[in-house]
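Question (not urgent): is this output format expected?
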Amino acid sequence: MEAIGQPIDRRDGRLKVTGAARYAAVQDIPNLVYGVIVESGIASGRVRQIDTSRAERSPGVIQVVTHENAPRLQPFPAKLGQTRLSGDGGVGEEYQPLQAAQIFFAGQPVAVA
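Got this back:
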């Protein structure tokens, strides 16, 4: 079977080139909620306090989630490939988002609103 140079029938091709294709981003979903991630501006440290009161009073905000009120995640398995995970995917400190006050890397999520 030779595929190189052969035309391929795209079932959605006509819909795409005529503008009739429906994409996930343009679906009308009732009661859709968006989240905004607030990132740390430092690479290492600790969140000593976080004031969410202004964000919570903002129109349309349903909840502000931080390490103080986020649902607790299960710890990583003890022998996950004999390594521990870090925020960048390498070997290092265990990291689970919004679970502790510790900052492991710049841009780490510290809140979601």
